[in-house]
Design brief:
This protein has 508 residues and is of the alpha/beta class. The protein has 16 helices and 14 strands.
Amino acid sequence: MALYVTNTLTRRKEPFQPWNPPDVKMYVCGVNLHGPAHVGHARSYVFFDVVRRHLEWSGYRVRHVQNFTDIEDKIIARAQREGRSLEAIAREYIQRFLEEMDALNVLRAHHYPRATEAIPEMVRIVEGLLAKGHAYVVDGDVYFRVTSDPEYGKLSGRSLEELQAGARVEVDPRKEHPMDFALWKAAKPGEPSWPSPWGPGRPGWHIECSAMSMSYLGEQLDIHGGGEDVIFPHHENEIAQSECYTGKPFVKYWLHNAHLRMEGQEERMTRSLGNVVWIRDALARYRPDGIRLFLLSSHYRSPMTWREEAVAAAERGAGHLRAAVEAAETLLRRTRPSGRTSPAAQRLREAVARYRAEFRQALDDDFDTPSALATLHALATELNRLTDALAKSQTEAGSPEDAAQAVEEAREALRELGGVLGLRLVAPVPASLAAALRRLLDEEEALREVDGHGPPELVLDRVLEARQRARERRDFSTADRIRQRLAELGVSVEDYPGGSRWRIRDGT
């Protein structure tokens, strides 16, 4: 089965065929840096993380870009209110956001451009739109002329008249049409500004993403993603200005996730209303796998409600998956394969093949994560059934030696498929070990460059990556020393053909 995605632009499910396979150019709208991110943001970034992971698992080469909006009205207002610079505020919330995404096991984008770094490209696009008659200048402001684009409104599926009737448009007699939107804003007293052919000013919101996406991915993208709240006006305006500028289709597939809201409320979770749960606070109460499992338990195009009991249940579900992995590992540490296969082990092998196919089918069907999670739980149950029977020496299950190979294959499948959903499926690192790990990074010269931010599970992954780099350059003494230092902390390192994995020894 080929991958099918629901394209907001065409309003139908379509086979996924990128412009230049196997390369996929994906741009996801990032956070506005006027404050911390909340779990509604996390829903979007966890979903697009799964999109990227599934594409890469399927053999595509994804180039992922996600912007930071570091210049707009709310950031300026916060800077003025707190007497701080825009740069200080942006730096604070970028660092916090990246740490929170690391904790949630969201793969970092290949590039995180900031709006203030793309001003020259924005100016070039505005100049091009003016030259083609798609924009006009009024008192140092530059507006996009919506009537110059006969396809304006195609993403939201509404005519210009319908959009105008449903929008809250500030009356500005200087505009040719009420729906014309700002590409460039003339400077105001006390606000930051940049030089331009039309006088000092700053960019409008929509032009930022066109400039940043084109700078890193070119004029045509395969996937452009974001929350459904930015379909109009942000993405509608992005399409208009980008296609009028280049004369080419801008994006092949537009993907939008539905809202997350608080229990008992109809409004979506948003910082302006204050009806939010900050990601940092959620991580203080729940493990990352539990949060991810909750966010993926509903289809991305269905609205969700943040309920504490539902998140707690998701955490228990993640524990079920993790327990299956750990039980299998306990059995395998005491068992060596015999070369024979019992009937029960053969049934497990057949179940692994079946569930692997069902898992792929689920994600290939417009990223159906609820069905994919159901498949993971079914696989974990099958694995548990056999490991429990072997642990109790039930003769119908065969001997542990005769089932070891099948158990190992099922464990690896559970880890692999869980990884496509971004689930780590590892036990939490004790606080004492986390503190010792930080000391190790300071003491071991070969680990000085390892990023110590984020959850200790992630830091351990980075330590193993540093050890793997040492092995690849044939510096085996360093690799062995890192392994020995980890062993002293109670962490075992197991090497496999595809890399290494860590495990906390019993009693650590």
